[in-house]
Design goal:
Elements: H1 2-16, H2 21-47, H3 56-71, H4 73-81, H5 83-100, H6 107-113, H7 115-131, H8 135-149, E1 152-153, E2 158-159, E3 164-165, E4 172-173, E5 178-179, E6 184-185, E7 190-192, E8 210-211, E9 216-217, E10 222-224, E11 229-230, E12 235-236, E13 241-242, E14 251-252
Parallel strand pairs: 1-4, 2-5, 3-6, 4-7, 5-8, 6-9, 7-10, 8-11, 9-12, 10-13, 12-14
Length: about 270
């Protein structure tokens, strides 16, 4: 057995220096994965005021050190300088959740218990990392929120103020999406791209849709394509499949299915359906 283990170990060592995709990835991922949770948690605490005011300066210095170890001092300084603007925008997201969800009892409940705020506040921090060309850091941040909430927001997307995702599970927002102000999405919405045969030939191209201001998208809708624009004030109904632009103030729905009701005894007294 020991001889077999030694042979396997030798084979793995050779593969680790082979220059294949896994060996290249190991040099890229490990520095990020060791520090990403600490950095994201500390940044999110600052954004949601979850750090004592008397310790704000010292906490900022600690966070700067954590982030600098992750992405370097110059970019860490740029990210921390963006925190007031990020906090301001997240405050509008919290207001949108409170104003548009009657189940919300307080701002505090929204911050600690609404999946939308966890996902969107993480996105807003990750988006700044993406703008600083720290794409892997940004993507890992977004995936942390994705795992916790079921909401998948690519950090490259551009999202305006007062953004709210109701319930949230199963929402997908692609890299080149542009979303305006006061947009509301329900669960199961996909803002995606067409499947393509060009592969990486589409890198840098607009692949995902644009939602203008005051758009509402109901559950299960899929809106696809970089040329697709949903005009201001439009409402997209549940389960709609939309691949072309619609003008402002448009209501898009699908024809209601025909329901058939069969009156019969309960299954336990009959053969069932």
């Amino acid at each position: 057995m020991s001889d077999n283990i030694n042979q396997i170990a030798d084979q793995l060592r050779i593969l680790r220096t082979s220059g294949d995709s896994i060996s290249k990835a190991s040099h890229e991922i490990l520095p990020y994965s060791r520090r990403i949770d600490d950095a994201l948690g500390a940044l999110r605490s600052l954004v949601t005021d979850n750090t004592p005011e008397d310790h704000l300066e010292s906490d900022l210095r600690v966070v700067q050190g954590i982030v600098a170890a992750l992405i370097g001092s110059p970019k860490a300084s740029d990210l921390l300088a963006a925190l007031p603007a990020i906090r301001t925008t997240v405050a509008t997201d919290i207001e949108a959740a409170f104003d548009r969800d009657p189940s919300a009892s307080s701002f505090g409940e929204i911050i600690v218990a609404f999946p939308s705020i966890l996902a969107v506040s993480t996105y807003r921090i990750a988006h700044k990392c993406y703008q600083l060309s720290e794409n892997v850091v940004a993507r890992i941040m977004s995936e942390t929120a994705h795992k916790a909430t079921g909401i998948d927001i690519h950090p490259g997307a551009e999202i305006g103020d007062y953004f709210f995702i109701d319930h949230g599970t199963g929402v997908v927002i692609g890299e080149t999406c542009i979303i305006g102000n006061r947009v509301k999405l329900y669960h199961g919405v996909t803002l995606g791209a067409f499947s393509n045969r060009e592969g990486r030939g589409d890198v840098g191209e607009r692949r995902h849709p644009t939602l203008e201001d005051d758009v509402t998208i109901y559950p299960g809708a899929s809106i696809l394509g970089g040329a697709t624009v949903v005009g201001k004030g439009s409402v997209i109904g549940g389960n709609v499949w939309l691949t072309r632009s619609v003008p402002p103030n448009t209501r898009v729905t699908i024809k209601s299915p025909e329901l058939q009701l069969h009156q019969s005894p309960p299954p336990e007294f009959d053969a069932g359906i």
